[in-house]
Write a structure and sequence with these properties.
The protein has helices at 2-26, 63-95; strands at residues 30-34, 40-45, 50-55. By secondary structure, the protein is an alpha+beta fold. InterPro entries: YbaB-like_sf (IPR036894), YbaB/EbfC (IPR004401).
């Protein structure tokens, strides 16, 4: 029994390391979001860090419209990045879960 616990602990540490590696890799996964009319383009990482924002000059004439574009498109980019992030982390975590009786809800 003690060996089983030690084996599970080792597996959990290994999984934790894989999750950390995945988080680092997600810093390099870029998500692009563009407004329907192409007036604003946003790039974020899968870890939800904004990398770039490109704004068409026509939006600079209307502060309210620019703010609306930023809010809408930043939220879309963050939503996409969150989905990628959660999917990748969950896949690594699920793969490394030890077989603990009664804990098969994660499989």
């Amino acid at each position: 029994m003690f060996g089983d616990i030690m084996g599970m602990m080792g597996k959990l540490k290994e999984t934790q390391a894989k999750v950390e590696e995945t988080k680092k890799r997600l810093d390099t996964v870029l998500i692009d979001e563009e407004s329907n009319d192409g007036l604003i383009k946003i790039t974020v990482t899968a870890n939800r860090e904004i990398k770039s924002i490109a704004i068409d000059n026509t939006l600079l004439e209307d502060k309210e419209q620019l703010e609306d574009y930023l809010i809408i498109n930043l939220n879309k980019a963050i939503e996409k990045a969150t989905k990628v992030n959660e999917t990748e982390i969950a896949a690594v975590a699920k793969e490394g879960m030890p077989n603990i009786p009664g804990m098969d809800m994660f499989k």
